[in-house]
TrEMBL record, chain A:
Family according to the record: Belongs to the ERD2 family.
Transmembrane parts of this sequence: 52-76, 149-167, 179-199
Family annotation (Pfam families): ER_lumen_recept
Membrane-protein topology: Multi-pass membrane protein
UniProt subcellular location: Endoplasmic reticulum membrane
GO CC terms, sorted: endoplasmic reticulum membrane
Record keywords: Endoplasmic reticulum, ER-Golgi transport, Membrane, Protein transport, Receptor, Transmembrane, Transmembrane helix, Transport
Predominant localisation class: endoplasmic reticulum
Name of protein: ER lumen protein-retaining receptor
Organism of provenance: Scleroderma citrinum Foug A
UniProt cross-references to PANTHER family, sorted A to Z: ER LUMEN PROTEIN RETAINING RECEPTOR
Presence of keyword Cytoplasm: no
Amino acid sequence: MNIFRLLGDLAHLASIFILVHKMHTTRSCRGISFKTQALYVVVFVTRYIDLFYSWISLYNFVMKIFFISSSCYILYLMKYRFRPTHDPTLDTFKVEYLAGPCFALALIFNYHFDFTEIMWTFSIYLEAVAIFPQLFMMQRTGEAETITTHYLAALGIYRALYIPNWIYRYYTEGTVDPIAIVAGIVQTGLYLDFFYVYFTKVLQGQKFELPA
Amino acid sequence: SANPPVKDEL
């Protein structure tokens, strides 16, 4: 565990707390893509199959359980508690276009051709692009609530912080995980446009608005 | 050369 990894995980935790807080205080899931949130459930469930057969640490165990359960809880909030506030006509990105290619890539580029390894690889690729339906939805509406932008910023910063963590681990432990690194760089890259608007506008007190 | 990846990340 190094500082980049720890801060990254804390940013990830923070993003989930911000999202749940937004939904509870506004009693709404407006502006949040159900499809992106559903993809995160798939990501966590397929990645953490190792909960059943490998023990890493208490930290690791608790975080995995938290990510699986909180992502399911968010789906529950969107699907039942705050269902009337979700507008499916804005959430129209086709998730098959993401899941299909990710699965195909996982079958081709993996470390071992076995079930859990392919599921792990699939989850890494899918996480990299899972934000697409959310970004697509914001592109369509052209705006986002400030609290939603804080959520997205924390979520983007999480994976961005994993990059210095991988560099640090290469020098201190000699470990390299090309699948996670390439996917992590792609994932962070997808946030660059968003980060630009977030840091230059939202953090200066302006509303998140995309040019028409 | 690089060691194989350790799956201890989240």
